[in-house]
Amino acid sequence: MRTQYHENLQELAELLHAMCLRDRDVVAAATDALLSADLLESEAAIDLGREVEIMHQEAEREAVRLLALQAPVAGELRQVVTAIQLTGNLKRMAALATHIAAAARRRHPEFVVPEPARPVIAALGAAAVGIAGSAAAALASGDPEIAASLDQQDDTVDRLHERLLATVLDPDWSYGITTAVDITLLGRYYERFADNAVDVGRRTIFLATGETADRWIPTDRTGR
């Protein structure tokens, strides 16, 4: 019976990993839609986001079932409770990415992003894809070192977000208030997407070590 329980836990972990990969796909498609004003690409990103919502419901149901199935011991309980928390982060990542795609759809056939902001948006999109991929790698491996690296990737996103805001606030900005609001919101969506990916990493550290991310000491700082 316990073997089956552990197999179910592994299946739940694999579902979370699949959700994170799908989040990466959503934000990639949404960014492409923004930069190309491609209606079909924006619709595809939104459809992928809906798939994540379905996966979230499945993962949440399975986690609750595992809590009720048997009395989990400490390590198992940590896995199930952390999985429930992770489903929330992964669902939010998909929702934020679909907001990006929705902006492209709403302004179609016009471009949402004017020329001065396009390089920064492209860089933000690439950084978001990268951090989602790293979060997925952390979930797949359970490696706290990989999970901890997401903080540095988030710093890159934060710097790009600051550059985007500086572009909008530049005295030479000539694209109007509506476009400025659109760009500001897009920057916020990318920033929050990355923040949730960092939370995935922090929860992975706790899952792997039993320590919070703030208390865990990486190997290269312990000398082991």
TrEMBL record:
Main location: cytoplasm
Keyword Transcription: no
The keyword Cytoplasm belongs to this UniProt entry's keyword annotation: yes
GO biological process, one term: intracellular phosphate ion homeostasis
Source superkingdom: Bacteria
All residue ranges annotated as the PhoU domain in the record: 24-102, 128-203
Localization (cell): Cytoplasm
Gene3D superfamilies reported for this sequence: Phosphate transport system protein phou homolog 2, domain 2
CC per GO annotation: cytoplasm
InterPro entries: PhoU, PhoU-like_sf, PhoU_dom
Sorted UniProt keywords: Cytoplasm, Phosphate transport, Transport
Protein family according to the UniProt entry: Belongs to the PhoU family.
Subunit structure: Homodimer.
The protein's name in its UniProt record: Phosphate-specific transport system accessory protein PhoU
Organism name: Nocardia aurantia
Classification of source organism: Bacteria, Bacillati, Actinomycetota, Actinomycetes, Mycobacteriales
